[in-house]
Design goal:
about 0% strand; about 120 residues; mainly alpha
Length: about 120
Amino acid sequence: MLITIANVLAGLIGAGIILIGVREFWAPQAAAGFGIPNTPTEDPNFQAWLAVKAVRDIASGVFIFILLVGATPHLLGWFMLAAAGMPAGDALIVLRSKGPKATAYGVHGATAAVMLAISVLLFVG
């Protein structure tokens, strides 16, 4: 049961990050919601950087689905544990940039916490 719950949550995380990547790629102005004040969403150089980030976000989500299909729950747990560093790092970036604490903790921090919880469920399940 714990593994099933963790797999569903991991799949939601994977789908979510793929959708975020697609959104960054097709609508760079959406990056303003990341939480960094004065994000230059109309700057072509920023949009190029964001396209690179978008591809990496999409690939990260695909990695989760590959592990869901072809790996053991334990391996997926290790991946989710390591990958939780990404939203945790994002939270620190938003805080360092004097962005909204609600975004840092409520979006990025909460995502990292859910990913850590998924890891625990996969390890103990």
